[in-house]
Amino acid sequence: MDRKQFTAYVESTQEALRRFLVALCCGDAALADDLAQETYIKAYLSCDGFSDDQKFAAWIRRIAFNTFVSYRRSVRFTGSIDDAINCAIAPQQSDSAFQYQALYNALARLSEKERTAVVLFYLEGYAVKEIAQIVEASEDSVRQQLSRGRVHLKHLLTAS
User: Fold this and answer.
1) pLDDT tens across 85-112, in order?
2) Is residue 64 a contact partner of residue 17, using CB atoms and an 8 Å limit?
3) CA atoms within 13 A on the CB side of 74
4) Fewer CB within 10 A of the end CB, N or C, for the chain?
5) DSSP-assigned letters across all residues of 39-95
6) Which domain holds residue 70?
7) What average pLDDT does this structure show over 115-137?
8) CB 119 within 8 A of CB 135
9) End-to-end CA distance of the chain
10) Count of domains in the chain?
11) Of the candidates 140, 160, 151, which has an alpha carbon nearest to the alpha carbon of residue 110?
12) What is the pTM of this model?
C-alpha cells in the first residue's frame, strides 16, 4: 500500500473510527482523538503487511481496539471519587454530546468487552463474525458479551 492509498483509506474511515473510539472512551472526545491518531500511526507503520483492501475498516478498528485496551491497562487512576465524578461530567466533554451523556455513562459502567461488543454491533453495524475478528475472540464469546451488555445497559438506562 502506498502513501496516497493509505491517505485515501484514512479519509474514508476517520469519522467512523472516531465515533467508535468516542463510544469506547464514554464520550471523552479528546482521548478518542489521541487514540485515533495513535491508531493511524500504528497502521501506517505496519501497512506493508496489509493486503486485503476490502477489510481496511475492520483492520483499523482492530488496531484502535488494541490501542484502547493498551491505554486502559496503562492508566491507573489515583485521585479521589470526587475528582473522577468531576472529570466524568467536565463541560468540554459533555457539551457537544450532552444528548448522549446517559448512554456514555451507562457504557462506562459496562466491562470493556461488553462495551466494545455493543458499540461495534449497535453503533457501528458490524456482524458478530466481524466483531470476533476485530477483538480476536470466538463468535460465541462475542454473542455472550452482546447478551450481557444488552441486559446491563437495559438495567442501567432504566434505573437512571
Assistant:
1) 555 544 444 455 456 777 888 888 888 8
2) yes
3) 6
4) C
5) HHHHHHHTGGG---GGGHHHHHHHHHHHHHHHHHHH----S-HHHHHHHHT-HHHHS
6) 3-159
7) 88
8) no
9) 48
10) 1
11) 151
12) 0.65
